[in-house]
Write a structure and sequence with these properties.
- The strands form 4 sheets. Strands 1-2-4-3-5-9-7-8 form an 8-stranded mixed sheet, sandwiched between helices.
- Helix content is 25%, strand content 29%.
- It contains 8 helices and 17 strands.
- It folds into 2 domains: 287 residues, Aminopeptidase, CATH 3.40.630.10; 88 residues, Urease, subunit C, domain 1 (Roll), CATH 2.30.40.
- The longest helix has 19 residues.
- The mean pLDDT is 96.
- Strand 16 and strand 17 form a beta hairpin.
- It has 384 residues and is of the alpha/beta class.
- Belongs to the peptidase M14 family.
- Keywords: Hydrolase, Metalloprotease, Protease, Zinc.
- Its cofactor is Zn(2+).
Length: 384
């Protein structure tokens, strides 16, 4: 059995069952940090706009220094869960820690995490504040980067369900990027290192999610944190946790991110020379925006007071209610959607379709169900 298969089959023993689903805040991770403080160094390294603590975790004693941060966007929590699973793995399998020292900021934006928003409490996207540094959270990350002096940076995020890996009917379950560090998008030595690490993760992932790994466009934006750190000649990787079929709680992709993190760290730990084997990076397909959560195909439907045969696209809006993320189905588009894919598709076969309680076919209308020839179909996601 390969080391990747062993990592996959052994995941359950490392998964931290006390955190799950999409809503992860300081209150969820603080008991974990208390427990971890017996095995590694846990400190409060600053405060958010609203005064919530930002925590840092340092573990390992190797010469290769890896900085990673999660929930820079407060509603992107999958990688936070995976980081705690990774820490469980590392404390039981310390060979990586003999070669690497890790510094992890599990929730950089605790206000955004609590409100379940992308932005911080000042409505600022921290991933566009790398140069202006107007926010306390941005200053915490900058200070940590300067004091820890990393050899590698992992910028951990979550992406929407709209992305495909290339132009095919393949969800971008996980995406990566070796960000550019100049306007020419030069393939610099540190970018080659980042690209090689991504190819090592992609090789592993192809055994579990074939053709479902994508990369982002590398257009340079110095206001982004990844581009800024790359421009300082530190190999930097963007990780994006995407959509696995029916996995709206992001628990399946959590495992894949865990495996990706361990694979990247193992590659760093066991290789003293990185950057020569990077060219396979360019064969990873670039992300496209070709998916909706649901497409109802060939629906006979009332539009502007006349019956038409249309495709109807539905996208979920994520809404926090009573400390739980709910998924509200909303009409996002209609017409000929043959160039798009649905994570779920319903073929109405040109039969009459009633869009739940919506009075007409209009964008952003919320619909929990549809009726096709008196048969009801729920649009609520499974395992949500």
């Amino acid at each position: 059995m390969s080391k990747y298969s062993l990592l996959h089959s052994g995941y359950k023993q490392y998964k931290n069952a006390s955190i799950s689903h999409r809503y992860i805040t300081n209150s969820q991770i603080e008991p974990l940090l208390k427990s971890l403080s017996k095995k590694c160094q846990v400190t409060s390294i600053g405060n958010s706009v609203n005064g919530l603590p930002i925590y840092g975790i340092q573990i390992g004693h190797g010469k290769k220094r890896v900085l990673m941060w999660s929930q820079m966007h407060g509603n992107e929590s999958t990688t936070t869960k995976a980081c705690f699973d990774m820490l469980n793995f590392l404390t039981e399998n310390p060979h990586i820690l003999e070669h690497c020292t890790l510094y992890i900021i599990p929730i950089l934006n605790p206000d955004g995490a609590k409100a379940y928003t992308r932005v911080n409490a000042n409505n600022v996207d921290l991933n566009r504040d790398a140069q202006n540094l107007t926010q306390p959270e941005s200053l915490v990350l900058k200070s940590t980067f300067e004091s820890f002096k990393p050899d590698f940076c992992f910028n951990l995020h979550g992406q929407r369900t709209i992305f495909s890996a290339g132009k095919k009917n393949k969800s971008a379950i996980i995406s990566f990027l070796a960000p550019a560090q100049d306007e020419k998008c030069s393939i610099t030595p540190n970018r080659r290192v980042a690209m090689e690490l991504i190819t090592s993760m992609n090789t592993m992932l192809q055994g579990f999610i074939p053709n479902c790994v994508g990369i982002y466009d590398d257009a340079f934006n110095i206001n982004c944190v990844g581009d800024t750190f790359q421009s300082k000649n530190v190999p930097t990787i963007l990780f994006e946790a995407g959509h696995y079929k029916n996995d709206y709680a992001r628990e399946e992709v959590r495992q894949l991110i865990f495996m990706s993190l361990v694979t990247a760290l193992d590659t760093i730990a066991t290789n003293n020379s990185l950057g020569d084997n990077y060219e396979s990076y360019f064969y990873i397909p670039q992300n496209q925006k070709l998916f909706y959560d649901i497409i109802i195909r060939n629906a006979k439907i009332l539009n502007n007071n006349k019956l038409e045969i249309l495709d109807v696209a539905v996208q979920y809006q994520e809404v926090l209610h009573n400390n739980k993320v709910n998924f509200i189905p909303k009409i996002k588009d209609f017409g000929d959607l043959s160039q798009f894919f649905g994570h779920k598709e319903v073929d109405a076969i040109q039969q009459h379709v009633v869009l739940g309680e919506a009075n007409d076919l209009s964008l952003e209308s919320a619909i929990d169900f549809i009726i096709i020839n008196n048969e009801l179909f729920s649009l609520k996601p499974i395992n949500s």
